[in-house]
Write a structure and sequence with these properties.
single chain; 119 residues; mainly alpha; elongated
C-alpha cells in the first residue's frame, strides 16, 4: 500500500513536468534535442520510481508490491526530491529563456544603434 502511495504522490509531478516540456516544445521554446533529453529524463524518472521497488522485492524473494520496509519518511523524502528536481529544472528553463530574450534584445538594440549612427 505504501508503495502505491509513493507512486501516486510522484505521478502528478512527473506528468506535470512532461506536460511542461511538451508545451515548451510545441511553442518552439525548446529545441528538439533538448526536448528529447528532457523527455528521456522524466520517463526514466517515472520508470525508476515505478519499477525499482518491485524489482528489488522480486530480487530478494518477496512479493513485488510488498512495502513493509518503506516508511512514511521514505515516501516524503522521495516525493520532496522529485519535486525539488522539477523546480530546479523549471528554474533552469526560465533562466535559459531570459538569457535568450536578453541576447535577442541586445542584438535588436545594436542594430537600432548602428542604424541611428548612420543617419
Amino acid at each position: 500500500m505504501r508503495y502505491i502511495i509513493l507512486v501516486v504522490l510522484n505521478l502528478p509531478i512527473i506528468l506535470l513536468a512532461l506536460l511542461n516540456i511538451i508545451t515548451q516544445y510545441k511553442m518552439k521554446r525548446m529545441s528538439k534535442r533538448r526536448f528529447i533529453k528532457q523527455l528521456i529524463l522524466w520517463v526514466a524518472t517515472l520508470t525508476i520510481i515505478a519499477g525499482s521497488y518491485p524489482l528489488y522485492n522480486l530480487i530478494i524473494g518477496r512479493p513485488s508490491l510488498d512495502s513493509i520496509d518503506l516508511s512514511v519518511f521514505d515516501i516524503v523524502q522521495t516525493t520532496a526530491i522529485i519535486f525539488l528536481f522539477y523546480i530546479i529544472n523549471k528554474q533552469r528553463q526560465k533562466s535559459e529563456q531570459n538569457e535568450r530574450r536578453l541576447r535577442d534584445l541586445h542584438q535588436e538594440l545594436s542594430i537600432k544603434l548602428s542604424l541611428h549612427e548612420k543617419n
